[in-house]
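User: Hey, quick favor. My workstation is busy. Could you predict this chain's structure for me?
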Amino acid sequence: MNQEIAQSIARNTTIQMIQQIITWTSSFILMLFLPRYLGPVDYGRLYLAMSIAGMFLILIDFDGRMGIAKRIARAREQAPQTLANAIGLRIILWFFSFLTMLIFALLVDYPTAVKILLIVFGVEMFWRAIRTVFAGTFLGFELLQYSAVGAIIERVFISVVGVSAILLGANSLTIAIILVVGTLLNFLICAKFTTRIVSYLPKINWTAMLSLSKDGVPYLLTTIFGVIYYSIDTIMLSILTPAIVVGWYGAAYKFFDVLVFLPSIYSTSIMPILSRLWGKEDEMLSRTAQKSLKVMMISGIPISILAFTFSDKIISLFFGLEGYGPSVVTLQIFTVGLLLLYVDFVLSSMLLACDKQRAWATVAFAAIFVNFGLNYFLIPYTQTRFGNGGVGAAIATIITECFVMISALSILPRGILDNSLVTVSLKTIASGIVMALALWLFSWYHPHWMVNAIVGSIVYLVALFSLKTFNAAELAFMKNFLSPRNFKNILVLHKGAST
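Assistant: No problem, here it is.
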């Protein structure tokens, strides 16, 4: 991985982390007020309409920003035509999806209030779909600061105006309009930034657009299969166990989902880079892929250890042990397999960049049946044995992720990974063991758990450096990256594209 690629990954990962922190905070503030002040009935209408629109939006997004980003990363000079074709395809998909959604609402005979909300969110799907095209363009040019600005303004606007409206007695329709205006602001900002890198839009090439739609099917199927896969456990728990078990499981899964934010944003940052290297600079592709897996292993091991060790503190802080005590063991099971998920995210980006999206969609489809079969046996067993079927669902999730990782490695093109990762893995595992021992020994002095976590993290870093896990080039890059001057450069809205 050369300096330019490392800088691009570091810059875009940092930008996404800043965006995530701000949007999480804004969403959290809104959710403190929304369900309570709207009441269960009105909030239920809003949630129902948003959920239905979200399902149709998956179809409109089609291959999402990843497919667009890959095409643009490989042929940036064709970005205007790619952008025009992608927008044209999404306009067609929006029209049919919007019409289908309205027919669905009439057939199901939803209340008038829900139908009005569906119309509002249906109109919104138009610019949300095109905004995805803009986001894919930014990603293809490795300029994620543009989409970050739009997302931050959207969430801050919705939180400030939304909370104010709720306190003034707004109903679900008013909140829906505020949500829609927020996404419209995001769209307009992204549209403005798009003109910095794509100065004009040619006429739609209908032949190319048809080819685009065919190429995008595997991405769409992967998304659909992923939604099904991540919903199966909760649905089966709701059928096979009491409602309270679903609540315990949901609490643990919610925090587990938060823990994967790092591989999610990192894999997004590397995907366009791997795409433009594929078939052109195989050696650099291999080095970038291996460095990425190294980063994930070094990051994932301490996070897993800390989450496992302090799972009771985490559940107590966010949910309360009195009502969610059984969530602790479920969270611990999740954290044991957290590293698998970190690796899977990076492998997913590698496969998409190497044109293995069809094989990846097949893996996603197979994962549904693996997860279903495991849940079918493990949920009833753990519910009978421990009174907590969520334990079985968590185990099923981890085993399925292991299946996904093995499958991904088997279809990854040969030559991308080599045996050097074994040495890195052994060093990070050894550092993790030292960290775990330090946490255990330091706990004898009964410090505050956050202090213990900080001490353990420091011990882990010391162990990494002692085992010479980083080479000279990596150390020089980290020193440069952590400098105040470089951090300022990360936040600059550069005009043009990184190359």
